[in-house]
Task: inverse folding
């Protein structure tokens, strides 16, 4: 058999282009379903882990998928807004700790998440460089944000306006980067964290007043004396004007996009869910169930792709055999020469079988390499595709 393998290898080496095409076709046909299953499995694992760590969320009534993806992964926009009074009411029950979120805006494509210190405790987020949030106007970057933007403590990051054509809407806020979070291997790595007050300022629900002794800004025509509006393209909180910032109206009426519920046990969760059975303006969801429903949709698509993959693999196998059969007809003179040299029919059969085995082995090695690469870089590819 050793001689058959040697002759098969020499023959394939002589027709390198043909052999490379056959190996490439087999690798693609086999790799596609394997890589797809590996990535879907890893994707499901990441989604499920995050959902199971957050048993309940509260938000405006609307798309349950949008609310879940917004509250857990900061990807979709919330279906609506609720108010801070919702979090206060949950806290006053004494059954759970509400963790309010206001994640409506972005900074350089990354979601700005306004929340409280309870969120960092709940997600076990640690500051790797710099410090945590000290005052309004500060932000803390996730590890991925800091790496992609090349920013660190002491740098500045400006929020994106919600609508540049609406002068009465949100106004860009230039935030001071106060720290960088340690990598968490979760969507928190791709978020910019600020306090709720900072997020409300971006939303235009709060503003400050300029120091009348500060001559660094010139008021525009018609500007109210002492107001913070200037010809600057953004708002910025400084040590000098920090105490002038305030919010109009009751704090309980300020908006939230979602509330995470940190309940001590299943009984507390059940009692809280009962509060929202007759509510039309707000809803409570169980993320593990919503993610399971979402994955069912993914599995339906995956089953369809499985059928396509089987058809592709079958077609590729037939084409490989056809190419191999046609090559045998072209190699009739070569086979006759082997007969004259004393090779038996079984020896020739072993040589041809060895050629197929070498092609299959090379394809299998490439499939293994592609699968390992998918496991290594697939989650990062998903992350880059999910960030708009």
Result:
């Amino acid at each position: 058999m050793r001689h058959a393998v040697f002759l098969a290898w020499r023959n394939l080496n002589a027709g390198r282009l043909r052999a490379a095409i056959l190996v490439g076709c087999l690798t693609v046909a086999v790799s596609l379903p394997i890589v797809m299953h590996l990535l879907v499995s890893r994707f499901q694992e990441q989604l499920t882990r995050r959902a199971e760590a957050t048993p309940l969320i509260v938000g405006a009534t609307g798309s349950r998928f949008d609310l879940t993806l917004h509250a857990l992964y900061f990807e979709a926009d919330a279906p609506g807004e609720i108010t801070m009074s919702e979090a206060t009411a949950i806290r006053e029950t004494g059954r759970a700790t509400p963790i309010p979120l206001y994640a409506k805006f972005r900074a350089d494509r990354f979601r700005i998440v306004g929340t409280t210190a309870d969120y960092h405790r709940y997600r076990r987020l640690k500051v790797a460089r710099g410090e945590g949030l000290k005052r309004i106007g500060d932000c803390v970057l996730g590890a991925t944000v800091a790496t992609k933007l090349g920013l660190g403590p002491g740098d500045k990051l400006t929020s994106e306006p919600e609508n540049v054509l609406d002068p009465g809407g949100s106004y860009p806020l230039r935030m001071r980067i106060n720290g960088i979070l340690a990598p968490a291997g979760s969507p928190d790595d791709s978020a910019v964290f600020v306090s709720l007050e900072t997020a409300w300022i971006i939303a235009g629900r709060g503003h400050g007043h300029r120091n009348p002794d500060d001559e660094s800004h010139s008021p525009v025509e018609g500007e109210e004396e002492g107001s913070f509006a200037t010809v600057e393209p953004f708002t910025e909180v400084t040590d000098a004007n920090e105490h002038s910032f305030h919010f109009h109206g009751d704090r309980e009426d300020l908006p939230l996009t979602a509330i995470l519920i940190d309940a001590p046990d299943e009984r507390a969760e059940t009692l809280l869910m009962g509060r929202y059975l007759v509510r039309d303006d707000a809803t409570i969801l169980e993320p593990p169930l919503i993610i399971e429903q979402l994955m069912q949709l993914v599995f339906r698509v995956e089953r369809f792709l499985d059928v396509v993959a089987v058809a592709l693999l079958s077609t590729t196998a037939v084409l490989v055999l056809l190419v191999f059969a046609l090559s045998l007809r072209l190699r009739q003179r070569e086979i006759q020469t082997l007969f004259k040299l004393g090779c038996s029919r079984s020896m020739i059969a072993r040589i041809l079988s060895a050629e197929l085995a070498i092609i299959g082995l090379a394809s299998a090695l490439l499939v293994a390499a592609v699968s390992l690469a998918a496991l290594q870089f697939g989650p990062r590819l998903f992350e880059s595709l999910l960030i708009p």
